[in-house]
Amino acid sequence: MGEVGVKNGQEKMEAWDRVTLSRKMERLTASEYIKHLFDDFIELHGDRCFGDDPAMIGGIGLFEGQPVTVIGEQKGNNTKDNIYHNFGMPNPEGYRKALRLMDQADKFNRPIICFVDTPGAFCGIGAEERGQGEAIARNLAKMSGYRVPILSIVIGEGGSGGALALAVGNEVWMLENATYSILSPEGFASILWKDSNRAKEAAEVMKITAADLKELGIIEKVITEPEGGVTENPVMVIRQIRRGIREFLKGMSEKTPDQIREERYERFRKF
What we know:
The protein is of the alpha/beta class.
C-alpha cells in the first residue's frame, strides 16, 4: 500500500483538508465496509446489561471462508441515520456490547476486525451515569490480554478514548484521509488558545493525519484514497483493505496465541 504525499501531480493536502474529508457524511460507514468485505455477516445485539446501542455494530462473518468477529462504530449517510446512530458516538452499552463480542471471539478463537469511526464517546448525562469511563477502560484492559489477533482500521474520525476502545490492536491502520487524535482540533484550540476558530491551525500542530502517525510509528499502515476521498473510488480502497486483511491473517496464523498477546502488549508498552 502506498505512502501518502504528493501523487499524480497533486499537492500535499493540509491537515485540515483531511479533517474535513474524514467528516464527510457521504464517506463509507462501517456497515458498508462490512457488507463488501465479509460474507454471511450476522449482526448481534445488546450488551446483556442495559440495551443495544446503534452507534456500535458487531457480529460474526466470514472473510474468504475464515470466521471472524467484526465490530465497528457506525455513523449515518444522512441526517435521519446520523440521529439514529448518535453520530457514531457510542454509549457505555455500545462498548460493553463490543466487549461481549470480543470475549466471545477470544473463547472461540476468531480473529477480531474493528472499524473505528467516531468523534468520541458520547458525553451525555446518561452515559456518565451508566459508567462511560469504566466501560472504555475495561475494553482497553481486556483487549490487551486477548489471545486472538486484533486488527483496527480507522476509516474516518478516530476521536479520543471513544476510538481507542476499539484500537488496542496488534496492528492499527488508517485510511489516508482519516484522523486519529486525543480530541477534535476545535477542542484542542479551545483549551490551548481559548479560541475554537483556530481549529485549522490546531490540526497542523496536533499531528493527527495518517501520514503524521505513520511517521511517528503510531500506526502500521496507510490505506491510499483517491483524490477527493474514498467516495470517488470505493472499490480501490476496499481492494486494498481486503488484500491487507488477507496478509494480516496469514501472518498471524503462523504465531502462537501467547505470541499474539505478547506482541500486542509490547506494541503499546513502547509508547
